[in-house]
Amino acid sequence: HLALIQSILSSYTILTGVLILWLLYNYKCIKLIYTSLKKEEGAFLYQLQALPFKRQLVLFSLLQVLLFLPVGAYILVVVGIAWQQGHTLQAILLLLFLFGVCAGSSVYYCRLVNNTWKETKPLFTFPISKTPKPKGFLLVLVHFSLKKKKIQLGVLKLLSFIVLYIALVWNGDRYDHDSLVLFLVLLTLSHALLAFQYVQFIEKKLLFLRNLPLPSGRLFLTYYITFALLFLPELFYISWTGYQLIPWWQITAVYFTLVNTLVLYTTVQYSGAIDRNEFIKIAFGTSFVSIFFFNSEQYVWWAVLTLLCATLIFFTSYGQYDP
Questions:
Q1: What is the DSSP secondary structure assignment for residue 215, as one 8-state letter?
Q2: What letters, b where the CB count within 10 A reaches 16 and e where it falls short, cover 250-266?
Q3: Helix crossing, 69-84 with 12-38: angle to 10°?
Q4: What distance in Å separates the CA atoms of residue 285 and residue 291, rounded to the nearest whole number?
Q5: CB 188 within 8 A of CB 261
Q6: From the CA atom positions of the chain, what is the Rg in Å?
Q7: Alpha helices, DSSP H only, in the chain?
Q8: Tens of pLDDT along 124-157?
Q9: Residues of the chain whose pLDDT is less than 50?
Q10: Do 195 and 262 form a contact (C-beta atoms < 8 A)?
Q11: Smallest Cα–Cα separation from 106: which of 54, 47, 46, 36?
Q12: Which of 172, 176, 180, 192 is nearest to 299 (CA)?
């Protein structure tokens, strides 16, 4: 734990990543209170409106402290070590973060309790905003990710930045291609669950699409565009931090390697009745084969091979696929 705390205090990038993780934990705390208030059995809590605002704030502050206690106690330990080691700025930032999270959450709980009878209106209203704009089908999975899978997506992006930071920045002065191979395999495996969830969403939640004149090529393009957009942050980060270590053409090949591998994970599910366990086996098996290509830096060949396999599997199996 001491080594972990020292790494947090010595790098602002790692500190930022840890703060984001703690914010995600606080989001779960807020969601718990929000859900409790919205349930029928929690309706009696709205009687807290009869209390003065200061007393409400004290009660909700105590509640927030109890919910955030595991993280809050750890932050105080980190702050103590930071003071001892002379990391004054990091200690102040952590104390401000702890106070801001607890104070902001407590005020939000008070607003939840007291604003039930008020009609909330946006600060600015425009006539065009009253009519929701239709969303194009090619971006339906992007909207699904941002609306329904935002926490999972945020954790995956944070994991990507951490592993790429370790490979390209932390070990930049002793860069080893083998470590990059390991992290690329980790990235594809960690994002594989999204591929499984996308097919489940399209083929079960949007089952009516089977009755529409939707070309299979348009669905394939939807999958491809989705992963191409989702891996843009990784492309920008590798280009920003690794341009002195990796040639630009190889960075581009790594990007399409990630995209095409995830497209392969997606389309392989149309080859038969594949459940989650079978999908995991296929993902690990594919990752094992990819290691041989990555070790020899054959990213272009792997990107071409996975795209050809994905295209062949999808267009020969989509019509016979039975959800």
A1: -
A2: bbbbbbbbbbbbbbbbb
A3: 160
A4: 10
A5: yes
A6: 24
A7: 2-10, 12-38, 53-67, 69-84, 88-114, 140-148, 150-165, 177-200, 216-230, 232-241, 248-267, 276-295, 299-317
A8: 444 444 445 556 788 889 998 888 888 888 888 8
A9: 118-131
A10: yes
A11: 54
A12: 180
Q: What span, in angstroms and rounded, lies between the C-alpha atoms of 246 and 241?
A: 10
Q: Which of 92, 82, 96 is nearest to 7 (CA)?
A: 82
CA distance 101 to 109: 12
Residue 107, amino acid: V
Length of the chain: 323
Distances (CA, A) of 245 to 116, 173, 250: 56, 10, 10
Q: What end-to-end distance do the CA atoms of the chain give, in Å?
A: 47
Q: What is the DSSP string of 252-280?
A: HHHHHHHHHHHHHHHHGGGGS---HHHHH
Residue 284's CB: how many other CB atoms inside 10 A? Answer: 12
Non-local CB neighbours of 254 within 8 Å, separated by 6+ positions: 184, 238, 246, 299
Residue 41 one-letter amino acid: E
Structure tokens that stand for 233 in this block? 């942050």
Which tokens sit at 204?
Answer: 């079960």
What value, to the nearest 5°, has the Cα angle with vertex 37 and ends 31 and 42? 135
Contacts of 287 (CB under 8 A, 6+ apart): 185, 188, 189
Q: Could you report the per-residue pLDDT of 237-278, keeping only the tens digit for each?
A: 888 887 777 888 888 998 999 999 999 999 998 887 677 788
Angle value at C-alpha 121, between 115 and 122, nearest 5 degrees: 125
